[in-house]
Every structure is written in C-alpha cells, then in structure tokens.
Design goal:
By secondary structure, this protein is of the alpha+beta class. It has 16 helices and 12 strands.
C-alpha cells in the first residue's frame, strides 16, 4: 500500500499535459522515477517539471527570480479577459507583490492564532453534528457526508455566508479549481468560466449587503476585506471578489482531500490506525504524515524572470515551472523511507503547504480541521472501514477522492 513505489516505469518523454494512462490514479511510481532519473525535465510545450525538494525549497523562497504571476501562461489557456483568466490572475496565489502583500496582510490579520482558537468550538460542533447524522446509516460516503461538508461550513462562517446560501459553493469551487489541470476539455473550461461568473454575481450581492450591514471584523473576514484592514489600502471590487472566491477554493478542496486521504490511509494501513487509536496524542504528527504522503495539492507553478540554472539544467527566462510537490515529499534525500506511511514521522518538513512568502495562509486552520475531523471520527467510530467502490478524484493537480463508501460499525 505504499503507492506502487516499486513498480518500474519509463519517464523518458514524460509529458504532464498528456500523461501516461494510470498516472492520475497512481502517480507515485512516476514521481520516484523522475526523482532518480530526471528531476528537472523539459516538457514538449517548453515548460519544465521540477521534482526535488531542495529545488522546490529554493524556488519558493526566491520570489524575484521565480514569479507567481500567471498572466502569460493563462492568457492562451483561458483567453485573455475571460472569467477564469480574471480570477486566476487576481487571486492571492497567482500574484506577486504589491497585490500579494496587500491581500495576504488582510488575510493573515484575520487568521491569527487567537481568531483560529475562537473557531475551534464551532468546528467541533460542525464535526460532531455530521458524525451524528451518519450514525444511523448502514453505509456512508466519507467525502459527501463528512469531509467535503466541514471546510464549506468553516469558510462559510469565515465569510459569514448565510447558511441557506451555501449549497452552490462546493460545485463552484470544484469547477474553478478543475480548470487548473494541466490539460482541459472544452466542457471543463466552459464549466470553470460559468462557475466564476455565477460566483461573482453572488458575491457582488453579498458584498453589497455587507457594506450596508457590516459584520464584526474580528470574526468576519469579508467585512475585514471590504475595509482593507491591516493593508496599505482597500482592495478594488474585482480584487475583493476574486480573493473571496480564492478563500473558498483554497480552503475547500484541499482540506476535503486532507480529511478524505487521511481516513483512507488509516484504513489502508491498519497497524498505523491501531497505533493512533492506542496513542491518540499522535494525531498531530499523523496529520503531517497524511499531508506529506498524499499531499492534497500535488503541483505548484512558478515562472522564471531571468535565465537560471535548476538542478544543473539551464532554464530560459519566461519559463513555466511545474513544481511537483507530490514528488518532493517523497525525496529520499530529505525523508527516510519516503514510501512508508509513518504517523510518528519526525521531523517532517513536507511541502504540502508550499513554502516561502507564498506558504499557505490558511495552514493552521487546515491542520486544525484535519486534526479535529479525523480525531473525532476515530473516537466515535473506531471500527470504520472503507468499502469497495471508492472513486478517485481523477485530478492530477489535486489529489483526493470523489467518493469513499464506508461502514462505520
């Protein structure tokens, strides 16, 4: 159950935009081969795959040489001025200073340790309510009935989205993030554009209501973003809307995947599950190992602003880099026996949340959601087991399950 690390594969001519059959289902043999044979691999479209931990760490830290701005890459992909182009070139993750600095300052001021501590009782209540709803059922879906519901409620609370208006949020998020895949169908592209437009329309209305009736900026991130608190100036309407969309997307699918992947890993590694039941204090390192072993986000991107050398390979200016987080988190130079799932692994300096100035702004909240969800499900249903028929998410960039059928008793 190590992810197929001992399967021999050929990575010569590997193309992320047209990956080998089975790669989305099990990329780990390819990651291992890339790490050993081609850690910096040119792609047919002129981009490069970068797989080693040391290189990713360097790239994350150097924002001058490795830009997060994606206008050049996304213009041909989405169409300049299109809904997806506007969203993905305005949101925090794909922006450089000064926009990145302004937006990040507001978000970090809203996600202080004190603010997150205040969220914990509501998080526990949300998780316990979902566990209670599942208790009477013969079969449940650990994604639809549990993992996916938690971040939607937490982020809904962060932006103070009325409970009755939260239903479309998950589908919008999945469609917008789905458009970040290396290769897209026309249907995926159309769904992504439509989701941005619908989400924008909804947020314009919500923002107008919040301007009329502000919330408590201590707990309501939307009110804080509207006021531009903690920043060098307020955000434009487009920046405001697109970063509200980003907050939902960034915290939704990745946290869903952390919880779902974690529960699947414990099911698939019964000795580790038993150990966690006997030593519940291991929950924090267990969550870190889930993040490393099955990183919810498998890929990141940067663009070179000048010619440079990466891992001994010359890379021209203006090159799009695919940072293979899923491979770097299995780098044997950094992790002992990287193909083994070990809930007590320490140290565990994985890159699941990226690194440098762009390190995930919500990482403390994501860790808390993963910890509470997995801890409380294990306590309530220690004998849960995943049944046949699990459905993988089918994504390359985001790794998780679309469905995890399970029996709880």
């Amino acid at each position: 159950m190590s992810g197929g690390s001992h399967v021999s594969v050929n990575v010569e001519g590997f193309d992320l935009a047209n990956p080998p059959e089975g790669f989305a289902r099990d990329p780990f043999p390819y990651y291992d081969a890339l790490l050993h044979e081609a850690p910096v691999l040119p792609q047919p479209d002129g981009s490069f795959l970068v797989c080693r931990y040391a290189e990713l760490d360097r790239i994350y830290r150097d924002t001058a040489l490795f830009s997060s701005d994606k206008k050049r890459v996304f213009a041909p992909k989405y169409g300049e001025g299109s809904p997806l182009f506007e969203h993905h070139t305005t949101s925090l993750v794909f922006s450089d200073p000064p926009l990145h600095t302004r937006v990040r300052k507001i978000m970090t001021s809203a996600l202080t340790p004190r603010a997150i501590a205040k969220m914990e009782p509501g998080l526990v209540e949300t998780v316990d309510l979902l566990l209670e709803e599942m208790a009477g059922k013969d079969q449940v879906d650990l994604i639809g009935d549990f993992a996916a519901s938690i971040p939607i409620q937490i982020i809904g609370n962060l932006l103070d989205v009325p409970m009755a208006e939260r239903a479309p949020l998950r589908d919008w998020s999945l469609a917008i993030l789905g458009a970040l895949e290396p290769a897209l169908s026309e249907a995926q592209l159309a769904a992504g554009h439509r989701a941005v437009e619908e989400f924008k329309t909804y947020l314009q209305d919500l923002i107008a209501r919040r301007r009329t009736n502000p919330g408590d900026p201590e707990t309501d991130v939307l009110t804080r973003l509207i006021r531009g608190e903690g920043a060098d100036g307020t955000l434009s309407e487009i920046e405001l809307i697109q970063n509200c969309i980003f907050i939902l997307n960034a915290g939704h699918e990745t946290t869903t995947n952390l919880i779902g992947n974690g529960l699947a890993l414990l099911n698939d590694h019964p000795l580790q599950k038993q150990r966690l039941l006997e030593e519940p204090e291991l929950i924090k390192p267990a969550v870190e190992e889930m993040l490393r072993f099955r990183s919810p986000n498998q890929l990141g991107n940067r663009e070179t602003t000048a010619e440079t050398e990466i891992g001994g390979v010359r890379v021209p200016e203006g090159t799009n880099l695919h940072l293979v987080i899923g491979a770097a988190n299995r780098d044997p130079e950094v992790f002992e026996k990287p193909e083994e799932f070990d809930i007590s692994r320490t140290p565990n300096r994985h890159l699941a949340f990226a690194g440098g100035p762009h390190v995930c702004v919500g990482l403390t909240l994501a860790r808390l959601e993963g910890k509470i969800a997995i801890e409380r499900l294990l306590r309530r249903f220690p004998d849960y087991r995943i049944l046949s028929g699990r459905v993988p998410g089918g994504r390359i960039r985001f790794r998780g399950y679309a469905s995890l059928p399970a029996a709880l008793g």
